[in-house]
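Write out this protein's structure.
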Amino acid sequence: MARPRRLSAARVLAGFGLATLAALALADLDLARPDPWLTLQRIGAGLLAPEFGDPAALGYAAALTVAFAVCGVFAGATAGFALSLAYGFAPVRWLCILIRSIHELFWALLLLGITGLGPLTGVLAIALPYAGIFAKVFAEYLAEADPAATRALPRRTPPLSRLLWSRLPLALPELGAYTLYRLECGLRSSAVLGFVGLPTLGYLLETDFRQAQYGAAAAAILVYLALILPIRYWMRLRLAPFWLMASLWLLARHPAPPMGDGALLRFLHDAVPAPIRVGDWAGLGPWLSRLLGDQALPGILSTLVLSQLALALAALIAVTGFPLIVRRVTGRAGALLGHLALVLARSIPDYMLAFVILQITGPSMIPAILALGLHNGAIIAHLMGRQGDALTPRLRSDAPRGVRLAAWELLPRLSGNFFALCLYRWEIIVRDSAILGLLGVATLGFHIDAAMQELRTDRAVLLLGVVALLTLGIDALSGWIRGRMRLSAPGMRKAEPETAEAA
């Protein structure tokens, strides 16, 4: 059977270029603030003079941020490892795909009605999507382990013993490295959970900004950066039991709201479409039609428009930013400064960054586009820069230097990696575009948040299903394009832990 014709990079660029132009025509790019420069000056003044007015409150919020992350990632890794053992079964695989396609903030919004505004909500909001991610990655690592040890065991060895005595010991270093990387991601997720009311650093940041206390907000940002930037030094595998016990102790002491009687059953009841609950099966069609026509389809369009512009900006930042950390382009000192800039850009969660920009520009797509583009562009640029720095230069007497080296040698040689990494991040950008609707952009997240505030759980659950299907559709399209382009660049699964360690 003949292989499908290879999809050229020029065609892919042309297609995404046309999609970006169409998105520009449909996007809401108005500056709603009457004087954004005045607000920017005030925020800048606060950043230059942070106010640590209540160190105890800052310290407690930072401790809870770490505790939610550690417990959520540990629970997700434990559940993910158990699921990875049965990942080959279609029902388990589809369950993992479903739970990881929903953002942590969406999980938190759903859980608030069941477990309340307490520690369990924060831990589960991180653990549920991470369990699906861990299951997929752990299953791949176990499958890739050297089969020689398995073949050396007696033929009648039970499957569990084969796993424990052959594949698992070989895969443990990779499982541990990936878990440590996920702890960095969990710290970002934990901070963002403050925007739904959980008392992490994100809660302090939102409160201070809404009260125009920019110095206090700057202090919260600095404390967050002081946690995440040196994470490779204070979060090590041998210290993981200590951090887990300390986190469990702290969360156990934090006040938790009592769960209402039958909260879960009430949630499941409310999640059933309203016409079915009252026995009006004939009304289900009009109910679905109104919800899909008035909210789902406009939300999908806005989500795709936002994600397309963010992807284009991320690609532009990656192409222009990766040479910053290549020593043969910027020198040793320049590479160090470039490394610091990219680490800062990718360490701040895109939701938090969008919220800060929103205070300057007002509600539109601008904050979301800038935040998603900067965050994801810095991730791609960092990976490309590390790969470019490791490339062996061509031995020519007239070899280019500086910017010419980046444009005429490095970028052509890294083009496959560039396309692969952009396509890998595409699905993540779409997922995050949906959640940024909580900030007022009319994506799917905006309609989900409105449904939750109106206690219309059935509408929220259906729209979350739309988010999951949209994310999976983009992931499938991205995989199809990568396959047709025959890209062999390293995937994000293996590249991300290297990036986390480099931070």
